[in-house]
Structure formats: C-alpha cells, structure tokens
Design brief:
The structure holds two protein chains of two kinds. Chain A is α/β, with parallel strands linked by helices. Chain A is built from nine helices and twelve strands. In chain A, the strands form three sheets. A six-stranded mixed beta sheet of chain A has the order 6-7-8-3-9-10, with helices on both faces. In chain A, helix 4 packs across helix 5. The radius of gyration of chain A is 20 Å and the shape is globular. In chain A, 41% of the residues are buried. Chain B is mainly α. Chain B has one domain: Orthogonal Bundle (ABC transporter involved in vitamin B12 uptake, BtuC), CATH 1.10.3470. In chain B, 72% of the residues lie in helices and 0% in strands. Classes of the chains: A alpha/beta, B mainly alpha. The interface between A and B is large, with 45 and 43 residues.
Chain lengths: 268, 364
Amino acid sequence: MADNVKKLRLHEIRIDGLSYTVDNATILHNLSVTLPADRFVGLIGPNGCGKSTLLKHLYRVLPVQQGVIYFDDVPISAISLGEAAQCIGVMGQFHAVQFDFTVWQVAMMGRTPYKKYFDEDTEEDYRIAAEALRRVGMWEKAERSFLSLSGGEQQRVMLARVLTQEPTYLILDEPTNHLDITYQFELLSLVKDLGIGVIAALHDLNLAAMFCDEVVVMEKGRVVTMGPPNAVLTENLIQRIYGVPSVVSRHPEGYPMIRYERPSHGPA
Amino acid sequence: MAKAKVAASVKDYPGTRLQAHLQTRYSWVLPGLTVFLFIVMIGAISIGSTMISGSDTLRIIAAKLGGYDEVPHIAPALVDIVWDLRVPRVILAATVGAGLALAGVIMQASVQNPLAEPFILGIASGASVGAVVAILLGDIIGVSMGLPLWAFFGALGATLSVLALSGMGRRISTVKLVLAGAVVSALCTALSNFIVYMAADAEGMQSAAFWTMGSLADAKWERLLWPVSVVALMSVYFLSQVRILDAMLLGEDIALTLGINVHRKRRWYMALVALLTGLLVAQCGIIGFVGLVIPHMARSIWGAGHKRLLPVVILSGALFLVVADLLSRILLPAGDLPVGILTALLGAPLFMKLLFGKANNFGG
C-alpha cells in the first residue's frame, strides 16, 4: 500500500564528472552540475547538446560510463530500479508500441512499482488511477482503446500513468515535442500544479521562461550556465547559444518574454 | 469473494464500466474453458479407430484412479486402449499445447513483437538439433545422454543466435526478427535432418518426419512427469509475472522507469522459454504455430493485459492441441497424420496475415 512506502523526497541531484561517448562521438563532456530537485528546472539548449542524454542517465536508460550521479548524496547505482520507480516518474518521447490496452489499463500500470508477484489491484489503486485520469482530462475515455486516441491524448494518458506512480520527482524528456501549443501549455501547467520537483528538457524558450524556477543551459555536452529565467535568458545568451538575435522584455508577472528577430543577411 | 469485491469497486468509478463488464464476462471464462477442456479431453479419449462411449471412458478412468485394474462389463482390451494409450496421449497433447501457447505469449512480450513464436524463430528447430545429437551420442557411447537437457541447449543456442542476428538493439524490427528466425530455422532443420540421415539406425532415433512435423503418438505414462510438471510450474510462475509482461509491452524505457530490470527479465524469460521448448520438442518433435495462433486469438477477444490473457492462452492452447491431435488420428483411415501438419495448415495463413496485413499489432 502506498501509505506504507517510505518515499524518497529528493532535494538535489549532484552530477559529478559525467561523460558519455557513443560511436566515437562524445555526447557529454565531463559534466558536473548540481540540480535543485524540489523546483521546476528547465533544461534548454540546441539540438544535440546532450539534454536528452543527460536525462536518460537520470532515469537509467543509459548506463553511467564515467562519473557519478548522486540523488541526495546516494550514488544512483545504490538505488534499486524499484525504489527509484516509486519516487521518480518519467515522461519520455515514447514510440507508438503495438499493443491494445485500454486507457484504464495503461493508467493502472503506474501501480506496477508497488506490486509484488500475485498482488491484486486494490480499491486504493483504482482511486489513484481514476484521480490521475481525471486530472489529465481523460477520465471520460477510460474505456477507450489506447491505440484509438490522438497523439496528444495518448501523451496525456501517459502522463496519467506517470501520476498513478505517485512520484515525488518528475523527469520530462522533451514530452511536448509533438504536441500543439494548447497541449504543451496544458501539460506544463498540470505538471507545475503538482508542486513537486521537475526537470524538463524543453525546446521552447518562452515556455521555459514561463514555467521554470531555474533554467539550465547546455551546449555541446556541457552546462554553460544556470539560474532563474530572468538572469539566464538574455539577448546575449540566446545570440551566443542559438545564433539568433532577439529582444527580451519582461512580462507584467515577472518572467522574461523572448521575441526573435530575423537575422540580418549580407552586408549591412 | 475477492472477485466480487473487485467488480463492485470498479463499478464505483463510472467510466470503467467496460472493466466491470469484462470482469463479469471474464468470471465464467476460466471455469467454462476448464470444463469444456475436460469434456473435449474425454471425447478425444473416446474417439478413435475403436469407438468407446463417453460413459465407459469415464468408468474406466474412475476405476483406474480408484486402483482397480478391471472394469465390470468392459473388455480388458478396451480398458488398456483407454488407459495405456489414449489417456496419456490426450494428457500429453493438452500439456504440449498449453506449453507451446505459453512459450509464444512470453516470447511475444519479451521481444515486443506479436510474431515471435518458438517455431517461427527457429527455437524449436534448435531444440531438435540438441535432441538428435543427444540420441546420436547416446548411441555411440551407449549411455543415455539426458535428451531434454540437450534439447534445451539446442533451443538456447538458437535463441541466442536469433537475438544476435536480429540486432538485439533498442527495438527489434519485425522484418529482422522473422528473417533471423528463418535463417536459424533453416540451418537447424538441415543440421538435424543431416544427423538423422547419417544415423538412420541409431537406437531411439526418430525419423526426420517426426522431428519436423511432430507427433504425440509416443505418449506413455512414464514420460508424462517432466512435461506436465514443467508446464504447470512455468504457468504458475508466469502468472506471477503478469504486471511485468504488461509493462514490457509498453516498451523498454517505460518498463525500466516502472522499476523493472527489462534486460535481465528478458534474458531470464527467454531462457525459460528455451527450456520449455526444448523439453516439449524432445518429447514430441516440432509442432509449429501453436504459440502464434492461440495468443493472437486470445488477444483479439481479451485484449493485451496478461492477467486475463495468460490463463486463457494456457487453457486454449491445451484445447487446441487436443483437438488437432484428435483430428490427426481420425482424418486418415490408414493411421496417424503428423499433428504438426495440421497446426501449420491453420497457423501459416494467420502468420501471413500478421506479417503482411495492416493488423500487425497486439490487438486483433
């Protein structure tokens, strides 16, 4: 039962000298950074900068080749997958797999980390899954086949599955990539409202500016800088990292707003 | 009691009526299938070149189970036919059918591909190589070599080859998997046929036809112990793994973040499937497609969730092979048709549909 499980509540993730090489290409260069794990942290940077590779190390899809990752001073290798699954929820770029589960079944799979061998689903499990589906607005479609849903809906069901895990920390590995702007907003607001620690790889700088408490900027497998959006997302940085001129102003609520400008071509 | 409670609690959540509906529909499926399987088995025991009435069959079985050797008003020859020939054969058919169907379902979840099956991927042929090698060596050295063990090694070797050939990468493509299976299968079949051909008079060596088309004709009481107990144990074991099997279908990454060590589980499951396949092939040759047909049909009715799927697959696999074996006995007046011919006639068209059809998925 969920109540008896001692939940790990992360405060920080310390990454120490992490390097990753595949096919002679070095994706992460001796990367060291300490990430706050009780806030909404955005990970930004151009394509191929290693955002996703870094996150995949955090959720254990990639093995640590060199370096150490600590979750609150505990090396990641000392945490079992089962333990990790009870506190860390992961929403990745999932491939459409060939299976025919109902929405309800997919949501209920979030209870897997809490189950052993012949354990039956309990009333509590149903309540948690139902709550998660309501939260993402897929409750009415609980009986539908997962395969019959649109991409955005499938993504929301996947989020419900993650919420059913009752995570205390969330890793979002570019989950908004294929979603239109409405869904991107919905997804991020929903996650923000959970009030738990989040690390999200994001492409859209304005979304990062709006939702993140802290922004980490990566380039070529290294962390360039990190800090609150207002301090980090400057015209200079955007020019330097993305090579795009921009004007950054301040929204009345305080977060930076970025307008890109067309780069000038040819001789001025 | 527990079941009723679950159904009631599901109904408390409007929107999961389907779940509740399935639950009620499902509650009679297992008892129903079990009873039906029993009736069909009794029927299969009664039917044959010598017809026996169902009630006589039951009386003979009851008397034998009660420890009596003679049954009043029934000729001893009939008693022998029923008890010594047909009962073990039907039990073996049910066991092998259940085991092969189970092997198929587990392989499909392990490699996340609905086409995985011991015969199609060449695992069964690998087992046959191991078996004929064991018999050949046994004949040369003069001692029995542990046939099922060798068949297991053969099956394991074939499994490793198929996985290595198909890339074992992040996601194995269907095309690569099927091609790798075809290569391994062709190689192993040639190898075992070669050994059979070269060692034509080795003691206990079955014909090439036996190994490639399968037969249940050799069923004997004393050879039932291993297959029955292994199939039963594996069924129970995999029923404890249904959540993991479900999560595997969602993909490697998701299963991992649900706390499952996918790579280790997959290796372990594939080894168990090799063991199961090896044991069954050593017993009755290669009977193909059972692991493809049965899981596919069960999924199209009950969906992909393994908690419901596994028991249904095991029971229907048993049912399927009992019926197929009965047909193989009675279709030709001259005698037995290898049962693998029948299962292939039924299975190959479905394989084609799955491979080329649009419905190339875990649904129906």
